[in-house]
Amino acid sequence: MNAKPQQTPPRVPPLTRLTVAETALRLLNEGGLDKLTLRAIAQELDVKAPALYWHFKNKQELIDEMATEMFRRMVADPEASGPEAPTTPWREQMLVANRGLRRALLSYRDGARVFTGSRFNGTEHAERSEAHLRALLAQGFELPQAVRAMATAFSYTLGFVIEEQGVHPVPGERREGYDVAERGERLADYPLAAAAGTYLFEAYDEHFEEGLQIVLDGIAAHYGTR
Length: 226
Description:
Blueprint: H1 17-31, H2 38-45, H3 59-76, H4 78-81, H5 90-106, H6 111-115, H7 124-138, H8 143-167, H9 180-186, H10 191-201, H11 204-223
């Protein structure tokens, strides 16, 4: 009788910071940030949880790496990168950058919460910031003004998406309690607050665009930059 050929065991990718972060991002989309644990990630990678501590001291370090990987993927997207030539109008650069940021955050469940307060690793973010700051300075901003303008627009986008994902954790999914019609009935004694629900919890694309234009108008007015 011929011996049965031995089956080659499946190849397990080496455990690195990147493989852990990629696995964490995949699990993030399945259960959200609150359910993401080092134990769950270790189980998915078929390793013991202590093995992860060779790469990350705690969950926050892992979240920092997740945010960094999200950023790397975002800047690799040509639509998210946008025009960075010094001659490109600063408003156009900031519109493209913040639209790309929102799109990137929305591609992950709790994506904005991962970004909030995270410390990026590496230098990719510095390269991106350098290009945008140079463009702003070339168009009349002083460095403190350029930094505050970028930070203000970034904070608007991040905060907007946190609220948006509080209602829609992922596109097409609405959390219970955010039905606009039900809210209107519950707040019937407060007609203006009831009517506001349509503008707060619907048409997020339109809401974001208008808010971003308001932010940029404010930057232009405050610094006298056209």
